[in-house]
Design a protein that fits this description.
Blueprint lengths: L18 H12 L10 H23 L14 E5 L1 H10 L10 H4 L14 H5 L20 E10 L7 E14 L3 E11 L5 E12 L39 H5 L12 H6 L4
Length: 274
């Protein structure tokens, strides 16, 4: 019996197989011009494994993007629609309670002072970041099991409407090599329907196990946190103790951060967390 040399259909860039890949490689799959004639099942298996190993090595070499290739990438605009229910759900997710003196202004849509918490602006910023794991960003190849949300900066330029739609784009301003992992610094701008900027976010994303690409360790684009007071012995102006609910993470994730790591112990274990 005889067989064709075959064709590895996995796209080197996307690491996936599409119907277009099959169509373009079909002539190689069916061609018998360089057919082989295995004399045994063992020889057939060994030949197949050798072809696969050779093709995978070539594909990895062709698709081994440097994470630094992602610097400067700007996303397509993405929309974040929300209603008063989303505003209330977010407030509950971060611990606002009706037992607090001003709790109702964040938890009841008919309150005369019904308002959106300032940190709500993080949600629209994060809502489109799944683009980072789709394989469409040059140089990036990771999944949710290795992702941690690191630092977060937010600047509010206009009050949030209590319902509506915000439009975002994010830009990867830097990629840092921390040895044990990689840090992505993203600037996100949110605009309203009038194209006025409502808020700006800077998100720092840590990706475990993706360091060691000889990139920079620090960035001039990172917005620094506020420095500590010179007098480190100074007591805090006010100190409060608050006990979170055992289900706080399960509630908060309903506002958009659906990474299974926050609620599924088995998924967290894949990433080395407990």
């Amino acid at each position: 019996w005889h067989r064709s040399v075959g064709k590895v259909l996995t796209n080197a860039e996307t690491k996936r197989v599409s119907i277009e890949d099959v169509r373009e490689g079909w002539s190689d799959v069916t061609s018998m011009e360089s057919a082989s004639y295995p004399e045994s099942t063992q020889q057939s298996t060994m030949d197949t494994l050798a072809i696969i190993e050779k093709s995978m090595t070539a594909a990895e070499a062709a698709g081994s993007d440097n994470p630094l290739d992602a610097v400067g990438y700007t996303s397509e605009p993405y929309a974040f629609n929300y209603t008063f229910k989303d505003v209330i759900l977010y407030a509950l997710g971060i611990g606002v309670s009706t037992t607090e003196p001003h709790g109702l202004k964040f938890l009841y849509e008919n309150d005369e002072n019904f308002s959106v918490l300032p940190t709500f602006g993080v949600l629209p910023a994060l809502s489109g970041l799944e683009a980072l794991i789709t394989g469409n960003v040059p140089g990036l190849d990771f999944d949710l099991s290795s992702v941690l949300h690191g630092e977060q900066y937010i600047e509010i330029l206009k009050p949030y409407p209590t319902d509506g739609c915000l439009y975002q784009t994010f830009t990867i301003t830097d990629v840092l090599d921390k040895g044990s992992g990689m840090v992505l610094i993203l600037d996100v701008e949110s605009c309203d329907k009038h194209e006025d900027v409502v808020c700006r976010n800077q998100c720092t994303i840590f990706v475990r196990g993706k360091g060691g690409f000889n990139g920079p360790r620090t960035s001039e684009h990172a917005i620094p946190v506020r420095a500590s007071p010179a007098n480190t012995d100074r007591k805090p102006d006010k100190s409060l103790q608050y006990t979170t609910s055992a289900d706080q993470a399960a509630l908060y994730r309903l506002s958009g951060d659906l990474n299974p790591m926050h609620v599924d112990p088995n998924f967290a274990a894949i990433g080395g967390f407990s």
